[in-house]
Amino acid sequence: MYAAALRASGDTVAALWILAASIFSNLLLDLLFVAYFHDGIAGAAKATALTLFFAAFLCIAYLFHSHRKFLFQKKDCILRLSMIYTTLKCSLITFLHQASLYIGKALVQGTVNTGGTELISAYTAGTRIEGFANSFGDSTSAATSVLISQNYGAGNRQRVKQTFLHSLKSTLTLGILCGLLLSVTAPLSIRLMIGTSQAIAFSRAVHYLRFIAWFYPLCFIGGTFTGHFNGISKMIFTLCGTLLQIVLRVILSASFFPGMQLNAVALATGLGWFLAVSFWSICYLMRHQR
């Protein structure tokens, strides 16, 4: 919450440094609990929990020093029904958006699980690499949302449009570059994840990454649209687009998996992104034709 407050105020550098410090501490604590104390999965959980406390402490300490007005105080204990309504409306839609996304991923994972251990291994390794690549698009989407919300709140509609168009160009370029990088480095990245001893899993994971990399521009463009709609408090468009792409991804993955296996998941994911971007494009154009 406090990191979001920092980003919303424009102090993104501090939020970045706090994130970097927490990641570094998590790595050190993982080495301590897992490698040194041999505490296994429980050690990884302890490291994550302690890191969360550390990150929260850093946020509060920095806010106390530089942005004390963001800290919760007694004078903030005021019941405002309009603010409660706005908060519940926004948070409920965001909850439904995130929940539908992860439920869909779980259903796709269930389909992959029917293919045996090699495919499970390949899909797990591939999606972990994908998560790293997608983090660039997620970061751009978050930055777009912050900039658009600031200008939208200030009533500067021209800056809102300019921010969206600049972000669209940037994410398209970034999506193409990340897709190319993902495709070229697929053998190396999968080797780091599962090695080469599992020949079938290795081969399937590489093919999966190279197939889905073709659709990455759509994924990154979608991030710009979600950042835009979230920034102008129209999260319902974000939710509807996500539901469309998740439902299509689940249906197509289950339908094509027996014949195409992991390529079915990659194709279903790409077509889902295409459907979502098409829907968001129509919503954006309709709003700006009024």
TrEMBL record:
InterPro entries (alphabetical): MATE_fam, Membrane_Transporter-Flippase
Sorted UniProt keywords: Cell membrane, Membrane, Transmembrane, Transmembrane helix, Transport
Cellular location(s): Cell membrane
Topology of the protein relative to the lipid bilayer: Multi-pass membrane protein
GO cellular component annotations of the record: plasma membrane
Keyword Cell membrane listed: yes
Record field: transmembrane: 12-37, 43-64, 171-194, 206-229, 236-258, 264-286
Name this protein carries in UniProt: Uncharacterized protein
GO molecular function: antiporter activity; xenobiotic transmembrane transporter activity
